[in-house]
Design a protein that fits this description.
Layout (H helix, E strand, L loop, with lengths): L5 H36 L14 H6 L1 H31 L8 H35 L9 H30 L1
């Protein structure tokens, strides 16, 4: 019988939580996409696009602006799901005996790029929302962008530390 350390149990618990978050975020992104499809056929479906999101006035004003808004919201949700999926990949590849691997460092770097892209999507959405508000007085959802650019920078720094850890670990393996 193998005795797991506290760290291994925590990582296993985090792996399970990451799967739950990934499934939830994937369902949210899919629900937004399906609701958009329904609202293309039935105009009134835009009143409750997802979880009380009401873009009916925007849908009636201009279908193109409505499509752009829903696209930003969908992309934002899908990119968050992608970040969690990449975290799942990291958690499945972490080996506590040999934690610094090139693969984990590259996935961390990819996470930072996806987080930066998520921030960019949020900024574009917010720019469109404020432009539409000035032009049409139609309120639109604003997405949080600052947190994602901060997280992207933080994860990028961690990925660089992991890359350096890989270099040091390989140097130590060569000296033995």
């Amino acid at each position: 019988m193998e005795i797991k350390t506290k760290t291994e149990r925590i990582l296993m618990f985090m792996h399970i939580l990451a799967w739950v978050a990934f499934i939830g975020l994937s369902i949210k992104a899919g629900a937004i996409l399906i609701s958009y499809g329904v609202s293309c056929v039935n105009h009134t479906a835009a009143r409750n696009l997802y979880n009380g999101l009401d873009l009916y006035n925007l849908r009636e004003f201009n279908f193109w602006y409505y499509t752009m808004s829903v696209s930003f919201i969908f992309a934002f949700s899908a990119m968050k799901a992608l970040v969690v999926y990449l975290v799942i990949r990291i958690l499945s590849k972490v080996n506590l005996m040999n934690p610094f691997t090139v693969e984990v460092a590259l996935i961390l770097e990819r996470i930072s790029y996806v987080l930066a892209g998520t921030s960019l999507i949020a900024l574009l959405n917010n720019a469109q929302a404020s432009w539409l508000m000035k032009r049409t007085e139609i309120f639109q959802v604003e997405l949080a962008s600052g947190e994602f650019i901060f997280m992207a920078g933080l994860v990028f720094i961690i990925s660089q530390v992991f890359k350096r850890g890989v270099e040091i670990q390989s140097e130590n393996d060569l000296t033995v």
